[in-house]
Design brief:
Layout lengths: L12 H4 L5 H8 L6 H12 L19 H11 L12 H18 L4 H10 L1 H11 L6 H6 L4 H18 L1
Length: 168
């Protein structure tokens, strides 16, 4: 990195990969199998840490939680149902999102590309792609490249990249 003029120096990585909710991510994943760096990568790619973002599909907040998903999480774990403003409060919505992602983590045996595809495109689609193309943990790139939805394929790649950088 230091010898190449074309590489971003390590000293500037914090500007391209900020982590404003690092402590919240650590707390939200403390008792979960989900890795903190993956959660940070998801938030970066979902909203670039903008807690007020609303997607065309209706996902809201820093973790881009859908109302139906938040409802399911509340029901599964006996938590209070989120009010409209709660989606925009990271200290409320991120733990719900982390619980949902962790559930996908378990459903897909901790295979990161699979549970990321499930988070982005839904568990049925992620499972369908496994059924269509198979899954080889020794070659996760093959699965990623065969994801039918370009948006999901790029999303998985970006989150993996971001998580890798946050880990370092």
């Amino acid at each position: 990195r230091e010898s190449s003029d074309e590489m971003l120096p390590d000293s500037l990585l914090c500007f391209y990969f900020p982590s404003p909710y690092r402590d919240l991510s650590l707390e939200a994943t403390d008792s979960l199998a989900l890795d903190t760096d993956v959660l940070q990568g998801i938030m970066r790619e979902e909203s670039y840490f903008d807690r007020l973002v609303v997607s065309k599909a209706g996902a809201m907040g820093v973790i881009q939680l859908m109302p139906g998903t938040a409802y399911d999480v509340a029901r599964w774990y006996g938590l209070p149902f989120l009010e409209a403003d709660d989606f925009f409060d990271p200290f409320v919505s991120v733990p719900y999102g982390a619980l949902y992602i962790n559930r996908q983590y378990g459903n897909f045996n901790g295979e990161t590309p699979l549970f990321l595809a499930a988070y982005n495109a839904g568990p049925r689609n992620a499972t369908r792609w496994v059924d269509m193309h198979g899954w080889n943990p020794e070659d996760p790139e093959m699965y990623i490249e065969q994801i039918t939805y370009r948006e999901t394929r790029m999303y998985v790649k970006k989150v993996l990249r971001s998580a890798w950088i946050y880990e370092r």
